[in-house]
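User: Can you recover a sequence for this backbone? Please restate the input before giving your answer.

Assistant: Of course. Working from this structure:
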């Protein structure tokens, strides 16, 4: 059993008792359709986290009014037709032992629609990261918003939700009203601190009137906007104190960041886990309301310490429970080593929903597909088979895990002396070490499940067939392709793999040829620059790192542009000769020569390793190829291939 003295003790929010201190934080998941009505797959998404042991589920901020919908997929909070669907959410969560609160929001000047409807704001000014200007709200708009929050809260209560939460946080109208930067009004809703708080306070009173005095009402509060022009923690604490003094708030759910500081709103792996604990700790010194902490919390041991130190009353997790819904149950039974930790890549979750696509996770294929792939759906195989997997990268590890869970005898052949494939290289890049978490989890799993692993085995046709397999799965990955231009085979031309492996002797001035647009290019360029080289990245794309998830993109540029670097977009390298390269503009085809480079490094597409697959095809009862050996792609697709084929065997 676990040694958690705080994390798994009950806690009361108002008159509602939460069985433990773990809160699944609200976040848009895009699992509904564009009719704005609740959907079964979203209900199952929440129920999965309840089944995994979370004490409280908080549904994301449904839209208080039509003008407040950031996307058409946001549930229409003001519409009474949502009540039966929301009741399904509440029932499914309750059946799995958790409580459920519902958040309410008006998106205000923030949107993922392009182009959007009219965006409402306290004053006419675009959110700095947005190209879309706003309408300054009239009194009629304000009244409609207040009524929308009240209706939404009442609908939650009708549906059997246990409490509601008002969003005064990152992507919200109410946050912009309390912000001195955004609120330039001269009427009763702007100017003084009290006037800037008038709309949130009127919303709070209307919500409290709609749900009654005994119903929990929380505030999700941005404590620090993390922008040069926004408010800071001192002001955030002042806001929290003002809400507490109303006597109508049950708890404060802490938060930070805005769309203009998106990288701190949902911070990537380059931001330390638990980076925001100090905010909750500071707030605890000032107010007496219960506080929910936030900020890249994915470790139950860290969560326990936060509670033991008195820095919060409950611990909020979002991505951690997306990656592993069973984190609470595993921790409670003392099995922390089996937790599939979120690596904060943001590629599968927030990157998808900000494109209005259903939420995913790069190493949990069940996200958004809980009915098909969730807890309890993996069944023992009717016929047990002898499965030989060739290749111990992500795809090979994943298929080995799933096949072993289904009761098959699994033999894994790896050509190197360690498992992990290309992730071992990717995790060596600056600020990318946590990518290793994908393979470290899978390695623990296959070892625990008794997969028979052979290291340093360069498998050929005879090797594989000598194991007398019923099934062969080829996961031999991919290889770097040569730079196919004149001069591409010079001694001073290296692939990114040569650089990461330490096989390259790179000089002081490097021309970097990036045909990738992702971390394979940007990460290695940053590595070289961090080692003191002058780096000029040439890419055919519109800008360097074009394919990076936005929060990672911003933080990459914050670091990279402090180094000795140049960037040359819209160009391809035509040829290399000695220390010179000829570049061509991809739009005008105008050529330009660049001289004085000691080394050239390239990031291109890989080619699949297929020889073994085709030599065995037709000689095995069943044979599959997965991951990069089928087509070079990203981690998520390799994991998906392994899951899919593992379930098929």
């Amino acid at each position: 059993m676990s040694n958690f003295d705080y994390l798994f003790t009950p806690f009361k929010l108002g008159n509602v008792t939460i069985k433990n201190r773990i809160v699944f934080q609200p976040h848009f998941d895009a699992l509904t359709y564009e009719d704005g009505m609740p959907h079964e797959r979203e209900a199952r998404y929440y129920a999965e986290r309840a089944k995994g042991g979370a004490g409280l589920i908080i549904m994301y901020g449904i839209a208080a009014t039509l003008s407040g919908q950031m996307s058409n997929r946001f549930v229409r909070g003001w519409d009474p037709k949502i009540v039966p669907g929301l009741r399904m959410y509440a029932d499914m969560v309750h059946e799995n032992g958790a409580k459920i609160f519902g958040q309410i929001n008006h998106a205000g000047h923030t949107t993922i629609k392009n182009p959007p409807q009219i965006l409402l704001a306290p004053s006419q000014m675009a959110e700095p990261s947005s190209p879309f200007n706003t309408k300054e709200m009239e009194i009629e708009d304000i009244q409609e918003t207040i009524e929308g929050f009240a209706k939404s809260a009442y609908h939650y209560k009708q549906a059997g939700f246990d409490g509601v939460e008002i969003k005064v946080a990152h992507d919200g109208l109410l946050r912009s009203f309390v912000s001195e930067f955004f609120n330039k009004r001269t009427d009763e809703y702007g100017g003084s601190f009290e006037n800037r708080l008038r709309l949130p306070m009127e919303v709070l009173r209307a919500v409290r009137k709609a749900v009654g005095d005994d119903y929990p009402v929380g505030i999700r509060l941005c404590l620090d906007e993390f922008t040069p022009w926004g408010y800071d923690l001192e002001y955030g604490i002042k806001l929290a104190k003002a809400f507490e003094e109303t006597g109508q708030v049950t708890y404060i759910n802490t938060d930070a960041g805005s769309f203009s500081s998106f990288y701190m709103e949902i911070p990537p792996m380059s931001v330390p886990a638990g980076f925001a604990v100090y905010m909750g700790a500071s707030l605890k010194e000032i107010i007496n309301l219960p506080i929910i902490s936030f900020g890249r919390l994915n470790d139950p041991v860290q969560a326990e310490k936060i509670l033991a130190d008195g820095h919060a009353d409950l611990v909020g997790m979002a991505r951690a429970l997306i990656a592993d819904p069973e984190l609470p149950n595993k921790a409670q039974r003392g099995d922390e080593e089996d937790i599939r930790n979120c690596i904060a890549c943001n590629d599968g979750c927030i990157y998808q929903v900000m494109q209005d696509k259903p939420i995913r996770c790069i190493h949990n294929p069940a996200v958004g597909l809980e009915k098909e792939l969730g807890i309890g759906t993996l069944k023992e195989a009717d016929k047990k088979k002898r499965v030989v997997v060739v290749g111990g990268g992500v795809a090979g590890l994943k298929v080995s895990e799933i096949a072993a869970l289904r009761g098959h005898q699994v033999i894994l052949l790896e050509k190197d002396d360690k498992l992990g494939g290309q992730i071992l290289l990717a995790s060596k890049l600056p600020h990318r070490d946590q990518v290793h978490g994908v393979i470290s989890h899978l390695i623990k799993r296959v070892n625990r499940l008794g997969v028979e692993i052979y290291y340093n085995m360069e498998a050929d046709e005879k090797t594989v067939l000598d194991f007398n397999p019923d099934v062969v799965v080829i996961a031999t990955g991919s290889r770097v392709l040569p730079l196919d231009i004149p001069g591409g085979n010079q001694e001073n031309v290296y692939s990114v793999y040569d650089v990461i492996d330490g096989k390259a002797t790179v000089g002081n001035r490097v021309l970097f040829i990036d045909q990738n647009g992702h971390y394979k290019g940007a990460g290695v360029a940053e590595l070289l620059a961090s080692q003191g080289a002058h780096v000029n990245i040439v890419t055919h794309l519109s800008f360097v790192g074009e394919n990076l998830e936005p929060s990672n993109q911003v933080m990459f540029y914050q670091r990279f542009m402090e180094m000795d670097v140049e960037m040359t977009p819209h160009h391809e390298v035509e040829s290399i000769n000695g220390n010179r390269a000829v570049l061509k503009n991809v739009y005008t085809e105008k050529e330009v020569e660049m001289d004085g480079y000691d080394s050239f490094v390239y990031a291109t597409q890989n080619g699949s390793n297929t020889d073994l697959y085709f030599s065995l095809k037709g000689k095995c009862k069943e044979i599959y190829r997965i991951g990069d050996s089928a087509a070079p792609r990203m981690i998520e697709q390799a994991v998906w291939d392994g899951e899919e084929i593992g379930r098929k065997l």
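That completes the design. Residues 386-480+608-648 form a domain with the Rossmann fold fold (CATH 3.40.50.720).
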